[in-house]
Specification:
Blueprint: E1 16-17, E2 25-26, H1 51-85, H2 94-113, H3 115-121, H4 127-148, E3 155-158, H5 161-185, H6 187-191, H7 193-201, H8 222-232, E4 236-238, H9 239-267, H10 269-277, H11 314-317, H12 321-329, H13 331-337
Antiparallel strand pairs: 1-2, 3-4
Helix pairs in contact: 1-4, 1-7, 2-4, 2-9, 4-7, 4-13, 5-8, 8-9, 9-10
Length: 349
C-alpha cells in the first residue's frame, strides 16, 4: 500500500544520470514534440513523428491516463469491501493459496519501487507514465487477490455490540487517516495523475519541495500506520484475515525501514537529522522504526545528491557503482515518478 519544519533555500544542483558504462553527464531534458507540444509517450527514436503518429500517441496517452484513475477508484471500492467483509469462498486448502496471494502483492510492489527497477524500465516507460504504470500494477495484484482469496470459518475473534461498533469506527477512521496522509504528499502523485497531466499539457514537472506539516511532524510514516489500521481493525478476525494481517504487517515495517534508507541515500544527512527528530512510529521501541539515535559522523558532510560516489547504505550497494551514481544524481526523475519516498526534500543548513 504510504511515508520536518523545513524550507529549501539552497540552490538545487542540476541532476545528472549515467548508463551502465557511461560517465556522469547532464540529464537530458525531455523536449516536447514539434506538432503537439507533448513529450513522446514511448522512448523510441524511431517513433512516427507525422500528424497521425502524434494523434496515436495522444489517444493512447489519454486512455492510459484516464483509465488508470478509473481502475484505481474501482480497486479502492473492492479493497474496502474485502477488508470489511472478507471473502466468501471457504476452502480447506486456504493457507498456501492465501499466503501466495498476500506475497504476490508485497514482493512485486517493493521491486517496482526499487530505483534499480525504475532505471531499467525507463527504457520502455517514460517518467511521466511510471506513476500510472505502478498504480495499474498495484491494482492488478490486488484484483488478483480479491478474485482468488480463500476464506475459513474458523475465527480468532467475532465481536458484537459496543466492541464491534468501536472496532468498525476505528476501521473507518483509518480510511480517513489514510486519505488525509496521502493528500499531504499529493494523491495525484500516488495514482500517476499529476505526472500524466504534465505530459498532457506538454509542461515540465517541477521539483517537489516538501515542507512537512501535520502528521509528518509527529511520525515519518503516517500512510503506513493508517494502512495498518485497515487490516487490524476488524470486528471479525478469521484465520485467513489474520494471515493477511500478519504478512502485510511485516511487509509494512520492512518497507518503512527501506523507505528511510532510500531517502537517506537521496538526501543524505538532512534526512538522517529528521529521523533523529521524528520517530517512524510513536512509542516504537526499535531504533530503526522509532526515533534514531544521534550519529553526527555516520553520514558524509556533503549531500549524497552532490556526492554520487559515496557508498552510503547497503541498500544502495545492491546495485552496481554506475547504478548508484545514477540513482544519486537522478532525484528529479524520482520526483517525476511521483512516489512519496522520493520527495525532493532538502534542509537548509
Amino acid at each position: 500500500m504510504n511515508h520536518l519544519s523545513i524550507n529549501n533555500q539552497l540552490p538545487t544542483p542540476e541532476p545528472a544520470e549515467t548508463g551502465p558504462d557511461e560517465q556522469m553527464r547532464p540529464a537530458a531534458r525531455k523536449e516536447p514534440n514539434e506538432l503537439t507540444g507533448h513529450p513522446d509517450l514511448l522512448k523510441n527514436p524511431s517513433v512516427d513523428r507525422t500528424g497521425d503518429g502524434q494523434q496515436w500517441q495522444r489517444t493512447v496517452g489519454l486512455v492510459v491516463g484516464v483509465g488508470t484513475q478509473a481502475v484505481f477508484a474501482l480497486t479502492v471500492v473492492y479493497l474496502f469491501s474485502f477488508l470489511r467483509f472478507g471473502a466468501f469462498r471457504d476452502s480447506s486448502h486456504w493457507v498456501l493459496t492465501d499466503a501466495l496471494l498476500a506475497l504476490q502483492f508485497a514482493i512485486p510492489h517493493s521491486i517496482l519501487l526499487h530505483p534499480f527497477t525504475r532505471n531499467r524500465l525507463r527504457k520502455w516507460i517514460s517518467p511521466e507514465f511510471y506513476g500510472a504504470f505502478f498504480c495499474l500494477a498495484t491494482c492488478a495484484s490486488l484484483m488478483l487477490m480479491f478474485g482468488f482469496w480463500k476464506s475459513t470459518p474458523h475465527l480468532i475473534w467475532d465481536l458484537s455490540g459496543l466492541p464491534a461498533n468501536l472496532m468498525l469506527a476505528a476501521f473507518l477512521l483509518s480510511w480517513i487517516s489514510l486519505l488525509y496522509s496521502i493528500s499531504l504528499t499529493g494523491l495525484g502523485y500516488q495514482t500517476g495523475w499529476t505526472q500524466w497531466m504534465h505530459w498532457w499539457n506538454g509542461t515540465r514537472q517541477p521539483r517537489r519541495d516538501f515542507v512537512p506539516t501535520s502528521l509528518y511532524l509527529i511520525l515519518r510514516h503516517p500512510v503506513y500506520l493508517s494502512f495498518l489500521g485497515l487490516i487490524w481493525f476488524t470486528p471479525r478476525m478469521s484465520f485467513d484475515h489474520a494471515l493477511l494481517t500478519g504478512t502485510w504487517t511485516i511487509y509494512i515495517f520492512v518497507g518503512s525501514v527501506l523507505k528511510d534508507r532510500r531517502l537517506e541515500f537521496y538526501l543524505g544527512r538532512s534526512y538522517q537529522t529528521y529521523c533523529e527528530d521524528v520517530p517512524g512510529y510513536p512509542f516504537f521501541p526499535l531504533a530503526a522504526l522509532g526515533r534514531r539515535q544521534t550519529a553526527a559522523n555516520t553520514m558524509p558532510a556533503s549531500n549524497s545528491l552532490t556526492n554520487p560516489s559515496c557508498r552510503i547504505l547497503s541498500f544502495a550497494e545492491a546495485c552496481s557503482d554506475s547504478e548508484n551514481a545514477s540513482q544519486a544524481g537522478n532525484a528529479e526523475t524520482e520526483d517525476q515518478i511521483g512516489n512519496d519516498e522520493a520527495i525532493a526534500w532538502r534542509r537548509a543548513s
